[in-house]
Design goal:
The protein is of the alpha/beta class. It folds into 2 domains: 79 residues, Double Stranded RNA Binding Domain (2-Layer Sandwich); 77 residues, Winged helix-like DNA-binding domain superfamily/Winged helix DNA-binding domain (Arc Repressor Mutant, subunit A), CATH 1.10.10. Helices cover 34% and strands 17% of the residues. It is built from 6 helices and 6 strands. The strands form 2 sheets. Strands 3-2-1-4 form a 4-stranded mixed beta sheet, with helices on both faces. α4 packs across α5. The longest helix has 13 residues. The chain is globular, with a radius of gyration of 16 Å.
């Protein structure tokens, strides 16, 4: 995608807040949680700084809105049906994101197992790549946990990670 073409966006509401979604004509590029107007301004500023104009077009997100609605109502949704268009990220980050995307609903993987699958020695680099995941839930970094079963990290906070895993009926340590 040429950055000057711009992106469409919408904001979806769900029980724990709102989700900002952005896409190009090729696919979804960004999904992140918003707890405030300030967070919206940060996200919009991120795109503006990169010369990517945003246009609000909720009708372009009917499929995503339906999938998220089902997901937050306990539906076993496979977001892999959505086409993606990464507008940023290093080649390594994209490999981590695509490998993480294969993690099925209701299952977890360790950072180490993803590193091994990618033939990476250091699994911390996997955690760092997931911390920059532009597509929360769609690339299910919330399903990636520590080798010892601990939650590890989550860019929007462990309470939300815990909520998403419980929504998917994953047994986790408190």
């Amino acid at each position: 995608m040429e950055s000057k073409k711009g992106m469409y966006y919408t904001i979806l509401s769900f029980p724990k807040g709102k989700i900002f979604l952005a896409k190009t004509d090729k696919g979804l590029s960004f999904a992140n949680f918003m707890k405030s107007q300030k967070r919206f301004e940060e996200i919009a500023g991120y795109f503006k700084k990169r010369g990517i104009p945003l246009e609000r077009k909720p009708r372009k997100f009917r499929v995503e809105e339906n999938l998220f609605s089902q997901y937050f109502n306990g539906g076993k949704i496979d977001f892999r049906i959505l086409p993606l268009d990464f507008v940023h990220g290093t080649p390594f980050q994209k490999k981590v994101w695509l490998e993480t995307r294969k993690t099925p609903y209701g299952k977890t993987r360790s950072y180490k197992s993803i590193a091994q699958k990618l033939k990476q020695k250091g699994y911390r680099s996997v955690g760092q790549a997931l911390a920059r995941n532009p597509l929360l839930i769609i690339i299910p970094c919330h399903r990636v946990i520590s080798l010892d079963g601990g939650l590890g990290g989550f860019s929007t906070g462990l309470p939300l990670k815990r909520h998403l895993l419980r929504l998917e009926k994953v047994n986790i340590r408190a």
